[in-house]
């Protein structure tokens, strides 16, 4: 809604004289609205142009005033400004920088005529929730035709020779034509989209074997890594693997108790390593091929009968561990001895398996704290130790500190009071009952009956109040829970609170809340509350010295070398971190307009006085839409003025802004969607280049904005949280960061690599591709996995476009990659006149056990896409897996170069031997400055390489790509294409939020959620 009070002030003003009016326009306008850097300006003519552009009304609930703002024709500045850079490629651009000329900005284009309101069709109010958006068919066709006409005017460029990336341009240097950066529409084969693995099978490809792939460049340094050497000199040559089956199926806690009983009764206490599930290992062969015994296990004051069956499965060759490590200097095609490593891992864990001082969760153990740290939401922080056996030039035990939120043990009523933020209420409201259920879901509770005996049950759900919830006794009579307990001599204090259904879901075991307590030490597979996550991040963000001390404190509590089972296998564990060699490689230089070159220092660079290398040459039309009722209009004014001010530094022409506001409660989502649709319709009719949307931190504004803007309307948006405006509306670094996004979204280029900093490997046509798959969390059901793929389409590696896909949950392989890559190749060719010489494929999220499968499926898809796009084309592929979910950390030693208050190794630190696979092409790289805590290096594994990359070259390229992320003037922790793949997958998750999907027809669901051509083709980097 226009700010009526300020408009009323302006309506009575006289039209300024010509000289005064021109001066006001140069300052940002001088009409009704004071705006950012001035008002809308223009007088009566501007008001006449806006008649009939009122927004739709959402069935009477959202009444929009008819807009009276002006849309003045942009005037050129009174003084010429220096612009350079153009849409030409950078090789030719640098030569022209030496002969810079003063260029006048392109004249403002005449605004296309507006359609009178009376001629517009009805029916633009959007549906509620996830319903279909009904758009005017005529307007849709006109917009599509206009976009296609603009894109058709872009002539494909001639392919430059290798190393010569020059282009011609008719636009002023440093500016872009209105459609420059847009890409031609390439229709996808949605009918043939793949979402599952299908029936065909291919022979698994061999991961690249390349011993000695070590770099030499950079300053040599020494550092410690949290790898403890394993001592295998006295190791037995073979181990014996047994399959274990325990019936009935129970939790791992009961399985361990049952197997411990079986070990004592059937195996006479012979040392045996059990993984708590299906596998057991011994150093000496047992005198049985098949054994079955019934045992009685005791846990939580209860006895249960189990039948344990154990039979011989395999003989494990442990000597192959040494053979694999000795292959570092050979081309031997050795398969990693996974069975032997698994045996080694299971045996080492027996040092703490049944120790009551530790709670095991996945690959970590947590120490029961003597003084727990409260982190809010009735949770406490526990510290633990992660461990995993690894093979490098020698065997290692990778250990690292772990942090996890555990629900606080104690009465269930304490949880009710905490969630109620007061005392225990006599009854539960609907929302409080939902919060209590969400908190208790998956937990075990201890019920203490009138006899004082405690029994542990798993919580299922809440039922009716104890005073009215009835159940059937063994004699067939029915009575309420409260009456039954009173008969037993126990009178409830809160008879109107709901009872809890516990134990087996097929049994009606109902117990009152006030007689139950939460069992302590429960490690749950569920998302932590947000406040707990924030506290965990804060508590875990320590310097390198503190982190190392925490690791060693817990490590020393585990007496590995005195464990009977470990000694029986002949294994031993060292007592200190390994010292390894590393190198610190130089960062690339980045360049802005006017050949302004910057050398990053400590992973960041200042560009306060630098202008974007390319901008849009037309005056950009924009609005600020405020959806946050807590953000005041004066804060919007200040924010808008700062946005306007920073745009001048970059030479970007902005029309003076105006603000609209819409407030709604999250409960009234259906009406809010109608209002949002109406406003977006109107902004689209006004042909806004972008809209800044202020959203609330409370509720789900972001996904609704992106769904309506990108899937339904075709409107480019930039969201900003209201809290950010409240805290940083005057912080110019925040405004600069917002402009980094907006310029990229409006097809500009922020910066590029200096030609001299480019490694020779990428002085050719290269298409950088990042790929990732995000999966639903364990508690999320009926949600698919989302694929995100981003690919560069310019020769500088700055501009990217993206694709997303839906596929079956938990499926890590990208099933429709062939169609995705084919589209990216066609768009690259349309923009550059030829296919790329090289595809550098950075694949994230893949574990080592998936390497062969991912290489087989996805490399085959890439090569098939190349062949189908241009038969006979020679496009090389380098396939690199990017791993971040590991526990390797680097620590300085005395005299080592460090950076920052946390004493981290500096950005550019590379380790590519000793702790990497001995006969493979792998390296660790710290490419970023850790803002808090210990820097986590990213691990890179080259699975396939057509061009035999030099290790120094590949490490330099990877480090350079970490400096090409559009959203900040920092090097990031992994390459830009991988980061963009994350953002693409996240955008896909935003699109499906709160939608009911048919999991049996994901291809159809995807086809119903297509991004508008105005966005996906007109503004390819909309997703940054």
UniProtKB/TrEMBL annotation:
Residues 89-122, 136-156 have a biased composition (Low complexity). CDD domains: PAZ_argonaute_like (cd02846), Piwi_ago-like (cd04657). The keyword Cell cycle applies. Keywords: Cell cycle, Cell division. InterPro entries: ArgoL1, ArgoL2, Argonaute_Mid_dom, Argonaute_N, PAZ_dom, PAZ_dom_sf, Piwi, Piwi_ago-like. GO terms for molecular function: RNA binding; RNA endonuclease activity. Residues 168-178 have a biased composition (Polar residues). Pfam families: ArgoL1, ArgoL2, ArgoMid, ArgoN, PAZ, Piwi. Residues 411-520 form the PAZ domain. Residues 27-45, 123-132 have a biased composition (Gly residues). GO terms for cellular component: cytoplasm. Gene3D superfamilies: 3.40.50.2300, paz domain, Ribonuclease H-like superfamily/Ribonuclease H. Residues 690-993 form the Piwi domain. GO terms for biological process: cell division; piRNA processing; regulatory ncRNA-mediated post-transcriptional gene silencing. Residues 1-183 are annotated as: Disordered. This is Putative germ-line stem cell division protein hiwi/piwi.
């Amino acid at each position: 809604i226009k700010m009526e009070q300020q408009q009323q002030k302006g309506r009575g003003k006289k039209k300024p004289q010509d000289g005064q009016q021109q001066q006001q326009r140069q300052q940002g306008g001088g009409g009704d609205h004071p705006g950012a850097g001035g008002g809308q300006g223009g007088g009566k003519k501007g008001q006449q142009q806006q008649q009939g552009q009122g927004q739709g009304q959402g069935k009477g609930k959202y009444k929009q005033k008819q807009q009276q703002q002006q849309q003045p024709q942009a005037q050129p500045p009174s003084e010429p400004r220096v612009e350079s850079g153009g849409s030409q490629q950078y090789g030719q651009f640098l030569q022209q920088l030496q002969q810079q000329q003063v260029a006048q900005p392109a004249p403002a284009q005449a605004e296309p005529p507006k359609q009178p309101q009376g001629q517009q069709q009805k029916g633009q109010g959007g549906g509620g929730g996830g319903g279909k958006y009904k758009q005017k068919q005529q307007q849709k066709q006109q917009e599509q035709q206009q976009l296609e006409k603009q894109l058709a005017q872009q002539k494909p460029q001639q392919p430059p020779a290798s190393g010569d990336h020059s282009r011609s341009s008719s636009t002023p240097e440093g500016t872009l034509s209105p459609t420059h950066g847009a890409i031609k529409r390439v229709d996808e084969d949605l009918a043939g989209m793949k979402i599952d693995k299908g029936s065909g099978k291919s022979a698994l490809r061999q991961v690249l074997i390349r011993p000695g792939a070590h770099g030499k460049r950079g300053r040599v340094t020494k550092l410690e890594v949290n790898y403890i050497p394993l001592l295998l000199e006295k190791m037995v040559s073979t181990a014996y693997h047994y399959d274990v089956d325990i019936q009935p199926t129970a939790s791992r806690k009961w399985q361990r108790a049952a197997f411990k009983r079986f070990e004592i009764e059937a195996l006479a206490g012979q040392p045996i390593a059990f993984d708590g599930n299906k596998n057991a290992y011994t150093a000496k062969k047992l005198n049985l091929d098949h054994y079955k015994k019934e045992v009685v296990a005791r846990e939580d004051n209860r006895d249960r009968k189990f039948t344990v069956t154990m039979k011989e499965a395999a003989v494990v060759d442990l000597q192959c561990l040494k053979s694999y490590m000795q292959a570092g200097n050979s081309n031997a095609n050795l398969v990693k001895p996974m069975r032997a490593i698994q045996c080694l891992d299971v045996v080492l864990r027996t040092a703490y398996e049944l120790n009551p001082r530790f709670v095991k969760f996945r690959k970590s153990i947590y120490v029961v704290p003597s003084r727990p740290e409260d982190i809010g939401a009735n949770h406490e922080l526990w510290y633990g130790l992660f461990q995993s056996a690894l093979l490098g030039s020698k065997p290692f035990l990778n250990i690292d500190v772990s942090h996890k939120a555990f629900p606080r043990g104690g009465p269930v009523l304490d949880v009710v009071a905490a969630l109620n933020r007061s005392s225990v209420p006599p009854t539960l409201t609907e929302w409080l009952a939902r919060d209590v259920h969400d908190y208790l879901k998956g937990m075990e509770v201890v019920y203490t009956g009138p006899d004082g005996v405690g029994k542990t049950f798993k919580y299922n759900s809440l039922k009716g109040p104890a005073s009215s919830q009835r159940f059937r006794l063994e004699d067939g009579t029915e009575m309420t829970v409260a009456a039954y307990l009173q008969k037993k001599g126990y009178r409830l204090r809160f008879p109107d609170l709901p009872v809890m259904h516990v134990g087996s879901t097929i049994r009606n075991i109902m117990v009152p809340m006030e007689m139950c307590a939460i069992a302590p030490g429960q490690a749950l597979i569920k998302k932590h509350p947000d406040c707990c996550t924030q506290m965990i991040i804060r508590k875990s963000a320590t310097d390198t010295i503190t982190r190392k001390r925490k690791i060693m404190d817990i490590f020393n509590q585990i007496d590995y070398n005195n464990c009977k089972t470990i000694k029986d296998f002949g294994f031993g564990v060292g007592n200190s971190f390994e010292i390894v060699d590393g190198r610190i490689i130089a960062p690339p230089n980045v360049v802005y307009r006017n050949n302004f070159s910057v050398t990053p220092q400590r992973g960041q660079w200042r560009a306060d006085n630098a202008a974007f290398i390319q901008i849009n040459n037309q005056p950009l039309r924009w609005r600020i839409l405020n959806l946050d009722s807590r953000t005041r209009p004066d804060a919007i004014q200040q924010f808008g003025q700062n946005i306007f001010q920073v745009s001048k530094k970059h030479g970007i022409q902005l029309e003076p802004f105006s603000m609209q506001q819409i407030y709604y409660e999250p409960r009234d989502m259906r009406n809010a969607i109608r209002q949002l649709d109406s406003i977006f319709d109107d902004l689209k009719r006004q042909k806004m280049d972008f809209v800044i949307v202020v959203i609330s931190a409370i509720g789900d504004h972001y996904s609704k904005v992106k769904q309506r803007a990108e899937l339904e309307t075709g409107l480019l948006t930039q969201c900003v949280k209201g809290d950010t405006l409240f805290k940083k509306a005057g912080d110019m670094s925040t405004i600069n960061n917002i402009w980094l996004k907006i310029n990229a979204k409006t097809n500009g280029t922020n910066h590029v690599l200096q030609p001299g900093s480019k490694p020779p490997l990428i002085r050719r046509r290269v298409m950088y591709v990042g790929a990732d798959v995000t999966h639903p969390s364990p508690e999320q059901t009926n949600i698919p996995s989302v694929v995100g793929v981003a690919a560069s389409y310019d020769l500088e590696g700055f501009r990217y476009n993206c694709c997303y896909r839906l596929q079956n949950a938990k499926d890590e392989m990208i099933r429709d990659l062939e169609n995705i890559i084919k589209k990216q190749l066609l768009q690259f060719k349309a923009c550059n006149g030829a296919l790329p010489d090289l595809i550098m494929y950075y694949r994230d999220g893949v574990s080592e056990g998936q390497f062969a499968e991912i290489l087989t499926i996805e490399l085959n898809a890439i090569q098939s896409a190349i062949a189908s796009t241009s038969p006979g084309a020679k496009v090389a592929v380098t396939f690199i897996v990017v791993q971040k979910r590991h526990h390797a950390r680097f620590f300085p030693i005395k005299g080592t170069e460090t950076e920052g208050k946390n004493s981290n190794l500096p950005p550019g630190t590379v380790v590519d031997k000793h702790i990497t696979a001995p006969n493979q092409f792998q390296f660790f790289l710290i490419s970023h400055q850790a803002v808090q805590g210990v820097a986590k290096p990213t691990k890179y594994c080259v699975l396939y390489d057509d061009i035999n990359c030099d290790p120094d070259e590949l490490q330099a390229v990877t480090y350079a790509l970490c400096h090409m992320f559009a959203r900040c003037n920092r090097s990031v922790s992994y390459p830009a294409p991988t980061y963009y793949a994350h953002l693409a997958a996240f955008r896909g998750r935003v699109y499906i939020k709160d939608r009911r999907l048919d999991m049996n027809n994901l291809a159809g669901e995807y086809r119903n959620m297509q991004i508008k051509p105005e966005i996906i083709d007109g503004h390819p980097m909309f997703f940054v």
